[in-house]
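Dig into what follows:
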Amino acid sequence: MIQFNFDFHDGLNQIILILLVMLLPVQLWLLLFKSKPSWNGRLYLRLGLNILLWLVTLAFVLQPFWFSDGSGRTALLFGEEVSDDFRQAVRDSLPQSRVIRLDENTDAEKLLSVDSLVVAGQSFSDKTFNNLLLTTKRPALKWIPFRQSNSVYNLHWKAVLRKGEMQTVSGNIRTDAQQQLRLSFAGRTIDSTKLSTGDNSFRLQAPAFAQGQSWFTLTMGEKVLDTLHFFARPSEPLVFQFVQQSPDFESRNLATWLGKNGHSVQYLTTLSKDLESKESINMSKKEADIIVTDPMNASGALVKKALAAGKSVLFINIANPLSDIGRINTALGTKFALKRTSQQESVTIASGLTAFPYLFSVSGRQLNAADLPVAIEKQKGKVAVSLLNETFPLMLAGDSLAYQKVWNSILALVHPSSRNNISVEAPVISGLPAEVSLNNFANLPTQFTVGSDTIFPVESALNGLSYSASFRPVETGWLSTADSSGARLFVEKQSNYSDARIRDFLNSYFQKDAAVASTDQARHQPSPWLWLGLLLGCLTAVWVETKL
């Protein structure tokens, strides 16, 4: 069906259309009534030429176009990085298509004869993108990504987080053999996963060990795939209260580690029936945010009071999983359930780390920690239970990174809501849009800067404490943010992330021509040269006819 590239609602366009419609009666009046010619073949020719001129002028103003099946005339556009085998495979699948290049400013004219354009690969010049966006005839566009073996793509991680918070790295990779993918910090592997031959998706986790500008390295074999830069803000100091039936090395070692990381710790143990011991690390007058205790204290007033106030309770030092879980459920009304996984007394979770041979049953009321036998149930407060055996041997063996990773994973489940939260998804790439999410700020400025860019946060329609802002960084490297958080952002070079660049281009292309994107049809529109030729031809014919 024919459509028109003409805005009928625009006031000026309406005036032009009315004048153009009135032009035909004026032409006919001048030809038939003012000059009073005799009715002969010459008059019919003159009428026909004038009506034809009017129709061509009307069509030129309305700019008609139509759609047809996009498979009519197909062209192929290959990226610079595409291998010969991949190129040949694409050409074999589309034998009737032709290969074009759009590297020069005048190459946009090649698209005038194309209904469907297949873009294969990711690496293209700026001129190629400009020609695709500026062409007057927009073909239906389909993208076929080219994935090199042993290269990572669709990579995502957190650009800003707090020290001790879990960093999650996810992405995809295609391998030509079984290999191991490793996430490293300071030369040590902090998480890894096995890859099978072919396409793999992966998800690696580790805490932010150091404050400030930091980075992890993603490696496969001896090959460094990428360096993941991020900024770790200071951790938010919390108050922990340990309540133990008797002093033990596991809880005391955990309390000491928490104190060294800037948290306040109150350590309370029962030495005898009427004698208690109370110690403090980094003393604080605030109430405890998290209670760390054992199952024997599940029915205690301190635990129930903390939960009623919305605090978190973490149970450690499990001795008999079935009876201890039953005691917790009875005292607090939780619904924890266990299933045995082995007949052995313990199972190995990681090097130097063991746990009871049980797992928590999956429940919609609960959340389980990744790769650890730890579960949390949300009531007014949070109740968490760990089935791990002693973790302090990791510290004795000098593996403080593994110890920190374990406890940061557990504490993330019971961590209370933080203030002044900043969330940015990495990679942040120069010239491409990035979004900053802000939450629970006491005094959020109406604007702040990131490098040379000024950002204006917009309040969420669903949550008055949440704001977001979008910007396109123009600089690369570490950029400072002029706000109270002191956070910094690392901006990557666009040339290192061709995937992200072409995805941004596709968004722009489809937004500017939604009809092509949604119908998968080729759009046909007469060339401007055709209109020029028709108008000049009709005007010339009318002028010549009057001279004969």
In short: The chain has a mean pLDDT of 88.
